[in-house]
Design brief:
Helix content is about 5%, strand content about 35%. It is mostly beta strands and about 170 residues long. The strands form 2 sheets. The protein has a 9-stranded mixed sheet with strand order 3-4-5-6-7-11-10-9-8. Helix 1 links the parallel strand 3 and strand 4.
């Protein structure tokens, strides 16, 4: 299942997982991993620093579903309350690419045919078409930077998603 070399397909897949995939389809691979119910006093940073496999965290992020962290947050899967995969995050340690651009490369390496605009609320860059309309299914995680500074701004992660899946209630 987990494939750190799998290419990123906006709105569809990353790291060997597919948007819309059911939690039950990967549960057989999660038998010998930590399962935790999230509480406000849970120390996620410490748990991730010690995580060498997978950490399954229930009720994290307020969406009522399950979030699975692989390693120290190399890959993060966010499932809805209906147990459908709605979001795949990939960070440092992920070796797959989007249009040949890896985590750790500069924003300037992203295709110039696509416009990216920073969203302050989500703190990610979203793709827009030539008319400025949001293109769903994909975002780039990086620090906010003015256009001239983006060339030296590092991609720290990617987010492949379908927000509608996470909005659906059980």
């Amino acid at each position: 299942m987990l494939d750190l070399y799998a290419p990123i397909e906006p709105g569809n897949s990353a790291a060997g997982f597919r948007i819309g995939q059911s939690l039950s389809s990967i549960e057989p691979f999660l038998q010998d991993v930590s399962h935790v119910d999230y509480t406000p006093d849970f120390h996620l940073s410490a748990a991730l620093a010690a995580n060498e496999g997978a950490l399954v965290l229930r009720n994290f992020g307020g969406h009522g579903g399950v979030t699975i962290f692989f390693g120290s947050d190399v890959v993060r899967l966010v499932f809805s309350a209906r147990e459908q995969l709605g979001c795949i995050y990939v960070f440092e340690g992920y070796l797959g690419t989007y249009e040949g651009v890896r985590v750790g490369d500069m924003l300037a390496a992203l295709p110039t045919s696509e416009a990216f605009e920073f969203d302050d609320g989500d703190e990610m860059y979203y793709r827009h078409d030539s008319e400025g309309q949001y293109l769903p299914g994909f975002a780039v995680v990086a620090e906010v930077a003015e256009t001239p500074e983006r060339a030296s701004t590092q991609v720290t992660g990617y987010c492949v998603h379908n927000w509608n899946i996470l909005r659906a209630r059980a």
